[in-house]
Amino acid sequence: MTDARPPLLSGARPIVGHIPEFMRDPIATLARGHREQGDVFGLRIGPKPTVVLLGPEHNRFFFAETDKRLSIRSAYPFFMRMFDDEFYFMGAPDEYRRQRALVLPRFQGRQLNGYITAMAAQTRDVERQLGDSGEFDLIGTLGPLVMRIAAHAFLGPELGSRLGMDFFERFRRFSGGMEQIVPLWVPIPRLVRARRARDDLRRLVGDMIRERRARPVDPPDFLQTLTEARYEDGEPVPDLVLINLILMLTWAGHETTAGHVSWAFIDLLRHPEELSRVRAEQNAVLDGTDEPDLKAINRLTYLDWALHETERLHPVAYAIGRSAAETFEYQGYEIRRGTNVMISPAVSHRLPEIYPEPDEFRPARFESDPRGMHGLAGFGGGVHRCLGVHFAYLEMKVIIAMLLRDYDLELVDPDPQPIPGTKTKWPQSPCRVRYRRKVTATV
To answer: Are the C-beta atoms of 153 and 118 separated by less than 8 Å?
Structure first.
């Protein structure tokens, strides 16, 4: 085995390495690494060395080796703080597959059609609150909408309707537990608030599970089937596993979808020609339908391309990490056990040799190259690809289709920017949209 190491990105400072630069602008740091060193290089952003892999070939290796030579558990210790040390992808591969099998069927086929009613109903509620004209902040409006859709889909309409803005705010505090740099034991205020929010949410969801067992509904909804679930070997599922699964599904949908759908509106409103194409397709396919079904939504091909193009340009997860579970050789370099291994959808999605005119919003690129959509990594990949990705895309299509059908929209802030630093790359608030109800629209 070779003892050659990946070339280190220039600019590492004594003791702190690349941490200040990375904390300030991680995407720019990774893009600089690609310009200087190519698609494999090293960073110093903590006590352990970090190797960065960029491009679709390396992404395939990265996802294929997860749970083999690459470990999620060691790369994301904060998930143990947020959930549990044996929860989902934190557990051993067999345990991960057991838990995934509990929820995967609920995100496939006809099951998805059942969620459209909740998606449309919650979007109509937002329209009633907006009224006929005014301005709204994208994240401030769409973030709670996405959360309410998740609550109604996963907890049921009766329980979901009890949850107000406080539920959204608790999840924002809960998300503060996503901290890769600060050690788990350091009691900084944000992490203390995140733990308190986690405990509150666990109690809330636990009460809902017990209530549903005491008063089951017919026909059974998502929560009902989950509370009655057993593993494939017949073993009962512990309540803490059920609670964490519901929290994970709601949190993950909120963390990714709220940002993705907000960027999609920004992209469309900044590109009137693309917006016109989306509207024309929508008029032809939906033809004034109040609540589209799954078959109709799946025919919104151009909107699907537009959402994938937004995923390409603005992946909410700008980087994904693993830890080397053993020492191995890759591309002529030694990757030692314990090394942090990172890919970056934000950089890989803008490589010009893969995506011509990489900084341009061009949904039609996927018409001539549909495989380009499958090379995107905004929702992960391999066996750990986000199991709710089809739910997320369906939800975004319903929200966009309804708001574009009922309103004329215009960006007030012409050049929205992502939130700075290392957090999830939502658009920075305020990001205001001016709206006016169309004459033919009804709520």
So the answer is: yes
- What is the C-alpha separation between 99 and 245, in angstroms, rounded? 8
SS3 category, 24: helix
Q: Which residue reads 């907006």 in tokens?
A: 130
Per-residue pLDDT reduced to its tens digit, 348-359: 999 999 999 999
Question: Mean pLDDT in each 10-residue stretch from start to end of the chain (443 residues)?
Answer: 91 94 96 98 93 97 96 80 76 85 83 88 95 96 91 76 68 72 68 85 88 87 88 89 87 85 98 98 86 89 98 95 96 96 98 96 92 90 90 96 96 90 86 92 55
How far apart, in whole angstroms, are the C-alpha atoms of residue 84 and residue 183? 16
Please tell me the chain's helix, strand, coil percentages from 3-state DSSP, rounded to the nearest 5. Answer: 55, 10, 35
Q: Which residues of 411-422 are buried (b: 16+ CB within 10 A; e: fewer)?
A: bebeebebeeeb
pTM of the model: 0.92
Q: pLDDT tens digit string along 7-16?
A: 999 999 999 9
For residue 188, the model assigns a pLDDT of: 76
Which alpha helices (DSSP H) does 104-238 contain, by range? 110-113, 116-130, 138-155, 157-160, 165-175, 189-214, 222-227
Q: What end-to-end distance do the CA atoms of the chain give, in Å?
A: 66
Specify whether the CB–CB gap between 50 and 21 falls below 8 A. no
Lateral strand order in the sheet of 70-71: 40-43, 50-53, 340-343, 320-324, 70-71
- How far lies 178's CA from each of 241, 320, 364, 378, 433, in Å? 20, 13, 35, 17, 29
Helix (H, G, I), strand (E, B) or coil at 338: coil
d(CA 162, CA 165): 10
Q: Which domains does the chain have, with CATH numbers?
A: 19-437 (1.10.630.10)
What is the three-class DSSP state of 22? helix
Question: 219 Cβ partners below 8 Å, 6+ apart?
Answer: none
Cα gap 317→259, rounded to integer Å: 10
Cβ-contact 104, 261 below 8 angstroms: no
